[in-house]
Specification:
The chain has 85 residues and is mainly α. It has one domain. The chain is 76% helix and 0% strand. It is built from 4 helices and no strands.
């Protein structure tokens, strides 16, 4: 779901990589970054923009929403916490 939030410089770089590497239009690229913004925030860090572009392209091709991806991350974290106890 698009938030309408403006892209940061880092997010713009990811959108540019989506356009360059995977032939998305500027509008599509922004929508993809919007969809997976919360995933980036949860994962943290600043890998190369091309890396996130590749991750997002693959998720989009697989039909994985940002919400589904977040849920999978939280589930893995809960499982790891349970094992650590």
């Amino acid at each position: 779901m698009a938030t309408g939030k403006r892209l940061s410089n880092y997010e713009k770089a990811i959108a540019t990589e989506l356009q360059t590497l995977f032939d998305y239009t500027p509008v599509e690229a922004k929508e993809i970054v919007d969809e997976y913004r919360a995933v980036m925030e949860m994962l943290g860090g600043y890998p190369m923009a091309a890396d996130y572009a590749e991750y997002f392209h693959k998720a989009k091709q697989e039909g994985r929403t940002g919400k589904e991806w977040l849920n999978a991350i939280m589930k893995r974290r809960e499982e790891a916490a349970a094992v650590a106890q």
